[in-house]
């Protein structure tokens, strides 16, 4: 599709998503920047509901990053096990807490590249952190966003970094943070990976992959 047509498609998409999901927001709890970042690390291949529960337990035991830094890896693994991928997530969380307490001087950096030096913090999580905490325009391309953008025709790619580039090319920068959340809402409400509800979907008029059952 030509870029000019993709820009028109992006305009239609943004309008329809904004009307359908006016209150769209991040579904991870966000009581402080550093806690949101830890929840972001826990969210890999896990539901936000599960992450919020497990993180709540973790922060009851370790309210501060210094306490998290001092916690043994075995104990951390025991607490975060319900979120899956617990060994690599424990390493990431330990490193994040240590960097926060030392190199970062008790602050979450507003810098995607600095954040990505922490293992387990990829572009998706770094974008989430800088967007939610510092309102720096960045789109979070999770599994829902990737699927929706591919189906409607904004991208022909499936690699998240390429999808992100395609999105950023045609959607206005001011929409990037909210767009990720609205795409997640659409994915959860209508655009299921196996059983999309295309007849009810707010993007059905212009989606190239719509499946009509009417
Ligand atoms: S019309 Fe169907 S395939 Fe297209 S975005 Fe909506 S639910 Fe997904």
Got a strand count? 0
From the spread of the alpha carbons, the general shape counts as elongated
What is the CATH class name of the largest domain? Mainly Alpha
Alpha-beta content class = mainly alpha
CATH topology description of the largest domain: Endonuclease III, domain 1
Largest pleated sheet: none
- Tally the helices: 11
Number of domains: 2
What are the main properties of this structure?
mainly alpha; 2 domains; 214 residues; single chain; Endonuclease Iii, domain 2; binds iron/sulfur cluster; 57% helix; Endonuclease III, domain 1
Give me a quick take on this structure.
This protein has 214 residues and is an all-alpha fold.
How would you describe the overall organization of this protein?
By secondary structure, the protein is an all-alpha fold. It has two domains: 3-24 and 139-200, Helix-hairpin-Helix base-excision DNA repair enzymes (C-terminal) (Endonuclease Iii, domain 2); 33-134, Endonuclease III, domain 1. Helices cover 57% and strands 0% of the residues. The protein is built from eleven helices and no strands. It has helices spanning 3-20, 33-42, 48-61, 65-70, 73-80, 86-101, 112-115, 123-134, 143-152, 160-170, 176-189. Helix 2 (33-42) crosses helix 3 (48-61), helix 2 runs antiparallel to helix 6 and helix 5 (73-80) packs across helix 6 (86-101). The longest helix has 18 residues, at 3-20. The relative contact order is 0.14. The model has no long low-confidence stretch (mean pLDDT 95). Iron/sulfur cluster binds at residues 148, 151-152, 190-191, 196-198, 201, 203-204, 207, 209-210.
């Amino acid at each position: 599709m030509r870029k000019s047509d993709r820009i028109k498609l992006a305009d239609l998409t943004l309008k329809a998503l904004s009307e359908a999901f006016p209150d769209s927001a991040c579904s991870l709890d966000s009581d402080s920047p550093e806690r949101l970042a830890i929840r972001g690390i826990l969210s890999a291949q896990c539901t936000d509901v599960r992450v919020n529960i497990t993180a709540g337990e973790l922060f009851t035991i370790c309210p501060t990053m210094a306490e998290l830094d001092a916690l043994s890896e075995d104990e951390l693994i025991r607490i975060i096990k319900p979120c899956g991928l617990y060994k690599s997530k424990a390493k990431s969380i330990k490193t994040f807490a240590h960097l926060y307490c030392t190199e970062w001087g008790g602050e979450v950096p507003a810098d995607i590249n600095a954040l990505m030096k922490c293992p387990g913090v990829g572009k998706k999580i770094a974008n989430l952190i800088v967007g939610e905490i510092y309102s720096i325009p960045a789109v979070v391309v999770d599994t829902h966003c990737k699927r929706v953008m591919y189906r409607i025709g904004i991208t022909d790619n499936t690699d998240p970094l390429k999808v992100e580039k395609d999105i950023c090319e045609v959607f206005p920068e001011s929409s990037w943070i909210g767009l990720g959340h609205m795409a997640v809402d659409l994915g959860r409400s209508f655009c299921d990976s196996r059983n999309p509800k295309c007849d009810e979907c707010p993007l059905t008029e212009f989606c190239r992959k719509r499946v009509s059952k009417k």
